[in-house]
């Protein structure tokens, strides 16, 4: 069987099929729920990507927006013979039309039986956010620090912002009332380890306990050094969740599984970015990406015979996840929870409140009961 087009510059090859068959096919549950994937119609881009922007950050080079139809096609290809669904959200960037993207994705997700998060601007009023949450398929919000304002020279102009600068309290209050899902990409160069991030996450959990707060990318703990510093500080908060998106490091995934119970971990990909082909290496608190495409960032290529065996980053991440589960002898129920049941439980809670709200006239009282 020959290679078939997948996404961007990547094909799905015999190498990938072999990797799937050898490492993943017998292990992955029958139901897969991706709790972190980006879906955005390409026509919603309002600021063109330039070569200078591509050189700023490796993600700018590997990322191109993917439509719902193409996302579905790709997932059917990489997860053969699996029942698949996802929680999708657009690109959290002011280079895209956020309003149009939210509206389109809510409809596309509803059509496919997916769920979605609304990308939220910090300037949104409670009324505007409420309208977003009322859309079909929407179960919560996706804030991001780059949505504070746009800077064409850097995506990290607001990297050191407070969480409350891009997820303000008036929005948190509404999200709490709705028992909504919030996927939080923590800011700051120190990642989740930063004491300010720890304190602000704890504040959200204390003041807004009904939000289903999901920390993206295990708190951006892509290295074991970061994971060991950050995760134990939040391990005892049994209402706080973490997704595994963009985490390739088997040592990090094993540590997360040891530190945070499986009931609080959600499988995620960060696709379409993780359709990239290659591998990652780690040294201390840093990592390096390798791929077989001549991107600007890919200056230290490996030997052709090594590159020939590269598979998709998302497959490498799944193998790393499997390694951690095997090392800890996790049972099948725990694995199924992380790959679907945990996410479905949070969605069911948000949908229950949504249905209750729609059956009532006016706003629900704080206890969630429905009053005529």
From TrEMBL:
It comes from the Bacteria. SUPFAM superfamilies: Metallo-dependent hydrolases. Residues 106-295 form the Amidohydrolase-related domain. Pfam families: Amidohydro_2. Signal peptide: none annotated. The keyword Cell division does not apply. InterPro entries: Amidohydro-rel (IPR006680), Metal_Hydrolase (IPR032466). GO terms for molecular function: hydrolase activity. Keywords: Hydrolase. This is Amidohydrolase. It comes from Adhaeretor mobilis. The lineage of its organism: Bacteria, Pseudomonadati, Planctomycetota, Planctomycetia, Pirellulales.
């Amino acid at each position: 069987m020959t290679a078939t087009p997948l996404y961007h510059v990547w094909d799905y090859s015999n190498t990938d099929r072999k990797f799937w068959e050898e490492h993943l096919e017998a292990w992955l549950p029958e139901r897969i729920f991706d709790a972190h994937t980006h879906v955005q119609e390409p026509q919603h881009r309002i600021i063109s990507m330039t070569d200078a922007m591509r050189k700023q950050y490796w993600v700018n080079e590997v990322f191109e927006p993917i439509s719902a139809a193409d996302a579905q096609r790709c997932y059917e290809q990489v997860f053969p013979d699996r029942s698949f669904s996802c929680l999708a959200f657009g690109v959290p960037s002011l280079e895209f039309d956020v309003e149009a993207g939210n509206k389109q994705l809510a409809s596309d997700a509803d059509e496919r039986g997916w769920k979605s998060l609304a990308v939220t601007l910090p300037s949104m009023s409670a009324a505007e956010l409420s309208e977003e949450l009322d859309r079909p398929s929407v179960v919560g919000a996706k804030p991001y620090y780059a949505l504070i304002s746009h800077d064409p020279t850097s995506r990290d102009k607001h990297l050191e912002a407070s969480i409350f600068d891009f997820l303000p309290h008036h929005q948190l209050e509404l999200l709490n009332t709705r028992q909504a899902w919030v996927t939080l990409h923590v800011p700051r160069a120190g990642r989740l380890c930063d004491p300010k991030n720890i304190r602000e996450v704890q504040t959200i959990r204390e003041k807004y306990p009904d939000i289903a707060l999901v920390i993206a990318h295990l708190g951006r703990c892509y290295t074991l050094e970061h994971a060991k510093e950050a995760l134990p500080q939040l391990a005892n908060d049994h209402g706080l969740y973490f997704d595994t998106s963009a985490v390739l490091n088997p040592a990090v995934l094993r540590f997360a599984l040891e530190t945070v119970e499986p009931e609080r971990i959600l499988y995620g990909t960060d696709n379409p970015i993780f359709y990239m082909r290659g591998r990652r290496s780690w040294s201390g608190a840093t990592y390096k990406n390798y791929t077989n495409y001549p991107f600007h960032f890919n200056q230290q290529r490996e030997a052709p015979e090594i590159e020939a065996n590269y598979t998709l980053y998302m497959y490498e991440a799944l193998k790393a996840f499997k390694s951690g589960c095997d090392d800890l002898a996790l049972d099948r129920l725990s694995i199924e929870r992380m790959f679907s049941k945990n996410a479905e439980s949070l969605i069911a809670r948000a949908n229950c409140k949504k249905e209750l709200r729609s059956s009532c006239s006016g706003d629900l009282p704080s206890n969630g009961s429905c009053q005529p």
